[in-house]
């Protein structure tokens, strides 16, 4: 009987029809596939002769050993191959509606209270008192009202910075809106003891290195989750909390290209005009970003995109971008556009971009693969951008400086470049707003730095929401508060928080004396109180109401009509030079 010598098992096996078909595998595979010419073939075990006549064996035939090279070839065949073609791309339409339902325009302090309300300050006062008692053995005896004044002073210091902290209380340089609220030593003590958790050690089994500031992070994130969302343009980028001291391992990062190179890194998702909707503080390898099969950068985009409505367009930079990420965004109903590095393009050998030296300024080139397009555009240097929604089929003009003629000229730019430059800067706008009046002071406590950063962040986000609601209500820009005025209004409302609860039946004679004016003295205009203080209902302050029909004066035997209302008594009274019913009513 004909036999076959098996190299794998080292035995002679009967060569029948089934074994022959198994060895040939119908001719579909080859044992030498994928072997280069330079590879040395393995030496065959000598056998002389290889085919002889032997009797049929009486034992079962073991299965033949499968070569490992064949499995590698089959896995390669199953992998997806991308074919890039230089052709037109089917673009997606972005007809996002504008905000048409105007909200109620509230006071600045009310916008800030959405993030940090009275419950937060009560719990913070409790934790601060306990921390001070544990470490000093004395009673701090602070409360929520005093901590509100502490935060308000920090906001004022961000608007009016001094080189040294003690200069705010120094004779000749003292700032009354700070020194009249709190003494210097009390301010330092409260700031040093400020805590938002009632513990000095992490809970058992805790792996979160941010546990000391987690309550303030949760409050800001929950408030951002309540913001109204609708499909539109969003951007995701990094933000730095400046700090160069000692902090837990994995928190402090160094990015040399940032204006603030050292500190804690925060990944932020914002609208294209700077309203933050979600964030995640980077904690190193322990950061919970979900699935990392596409890489760390892609996991950050997928994690923050959960807060973005489906159908929106996300813009991000090349730190996060990749072709598989854009394909993944298409499957979950999101559009994405990002700058790209050439080494992150699969099968990039099929893409034949022109060299930079052969491209003129304003020239572009694109390659398409299924639902993704890669565009190269030549400016002063080449720019590589990828997208699953916009391409270079449509072009526009951008202004660029021409040094040859020393003037600006129109340069052709693809639509994908114009949209990226227009909608990518949401996080940068938020950073710019914070840098204007950042609460900056030296400290070795990273927790205090994070707490102050998120106070500023919440204030900037509250002002951004206020501006959006004013724009939706068609309020003229001349009547919209800028960031400085908005911040000072919040600071004035916090620093003037009453130390006692309001009693309706109480009359304040000091307020009446300020209203009564002596006709023999020259009139001197006083500073206007903030909106929060004007309407808190603690003082007898006149308020002019914008009503069509004046109301009857509440003063006895007065037949006049008036539009002036007392914010505390809620009555209408006359306030004239010869007939001051407002002062007479409160002195009776």
UniProtKB/TrEMBL annotation:
Pfam families attached to this UniProt entry: DDE_Tnp_1_7 (PF13843)
Signal peptide bounds: none
Domain PiggyBac transposable element-derived protein residue range list: 108-463
InterPro entries (alphabetical): PGBD (IPR029526)
Residues passing through the membrane, by range: none
Domain of life the protein comes from: Eukaryota
Name the record gives this protein: PiggyBac transposable element-derived protein domain-containing protein
Organism: Bombyx mori
């Amino acid at each position: 009987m004909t036999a076959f010598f098996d190299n794998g098992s080292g035995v002679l096996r009967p060569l029948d029809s089934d074994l022959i078909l198994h060895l040939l595998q119908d001719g579909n595979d080859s044992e030498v596939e994928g072997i280069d010419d330079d590879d040395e073939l393995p030496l065959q075990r000598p056998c002389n002769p290889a085919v002889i006549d032997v009797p049929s064996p009486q034992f079962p035939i073991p299965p033949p050993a499968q070569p490992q090279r064949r499995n590698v070839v089959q896995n390669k065949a199953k992998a997806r191959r991308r074919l890039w073609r230089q052709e037109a791309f089917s673009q997606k339409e972005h007809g996002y509606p504008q905000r048409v339902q105007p909200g109620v325009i509230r006071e600045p302090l009310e916008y800030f209270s959405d993030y940090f309300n009275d419950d937060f300050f009560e719990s913070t006062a409790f934790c601060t008192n306990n921390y001070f008692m544990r470490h000093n053995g004395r009673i701090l005896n602070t409360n929520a009202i005093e901590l509100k004044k502490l935060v308000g002073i920090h906001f004022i210091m961000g608007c009016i910075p001094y080189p040294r902290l003690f200069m705010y209380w120094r004779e000749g340089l003292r700032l009354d809106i700070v020194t009249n609220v709190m003494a210097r030593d009390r301010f330092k003590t409260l700031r040093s003891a400020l805590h938002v958790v009632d513990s000095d050690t992490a809970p058992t089994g805790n792996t979160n290195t941010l546990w000391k500031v987690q309550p303030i992070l949760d409050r800001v994130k929950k408030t951002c989750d309540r913001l109204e969302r609708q499909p539109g343009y969003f951007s995701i980028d990094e933000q730095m909390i400046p700090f160069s001291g000692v902090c837990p391992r994995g928190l402090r990062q160094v990015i040399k290209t940032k204006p603030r190179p050292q500190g804690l890194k925060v990944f932020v998702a914002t609208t294209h005009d700077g309203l933050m909707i979600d964030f995640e503080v980077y904690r190193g390898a322990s950061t919970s970003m979900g699935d990392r099969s596409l890489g760390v950068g892609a996991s950050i985009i997928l994690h923050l995109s959960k807060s973005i409505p489906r159908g929106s367009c996300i813009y991000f930079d090349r730190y996060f971008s990749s072709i598989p990420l854009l394909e993944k965004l298409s499957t979950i109903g999101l559009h994405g556009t990002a700058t790209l590095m050439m080494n992150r393009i699969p099968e990039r050998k099929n893409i034949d971009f022109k060299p930079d030296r052969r491209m003129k300024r304003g020239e572009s080139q694109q390659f398409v693969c299924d639902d993704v397009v890669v565009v190269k555009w030549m400016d002063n240097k080449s720019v590589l951008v990828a997208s699953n929604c916009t391409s270079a089929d449509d072009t526009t003009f951008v202004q660029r400086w021409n040094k040859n003629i020393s003037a600006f000229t129109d340069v052709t730019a693809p639509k994908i470049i114009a949209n990226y430059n227009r909608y990518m800067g949401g996080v940068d706008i938020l950073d710019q707003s914070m840098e204007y009046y950042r609460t900056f002071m030296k400290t070795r406590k990273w927790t205090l730095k994070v707490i102050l950063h998120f106070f500023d962040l919440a204030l900037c986000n509250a002002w951004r929401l206020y501006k959006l609601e004013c724009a939706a209500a068609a309020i003229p820009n001349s009547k919209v508060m800028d960031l400085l005025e908005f911040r000072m209004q919040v600071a004035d409302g916090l620093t003037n928080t009453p130390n006692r609860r309001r009693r309706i039946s109480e009359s304040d004679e000091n307020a009446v004396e300020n209203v009564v004016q002596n006709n023999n003295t020259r009139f001197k205009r006083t500073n206007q109180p903030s909106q929060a203080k004007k309407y808190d209902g603690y003082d007898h302050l006149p308020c002019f109401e914008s009503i069509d029909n004046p109301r009857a004066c509440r003063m006895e035997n007065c037949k006049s009509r008036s539009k002036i209302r007392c914010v505390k008594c809620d009555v209408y009274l006359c306030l004239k030079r010869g007939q001051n019913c407002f002062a007479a009513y409160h002195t009776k």
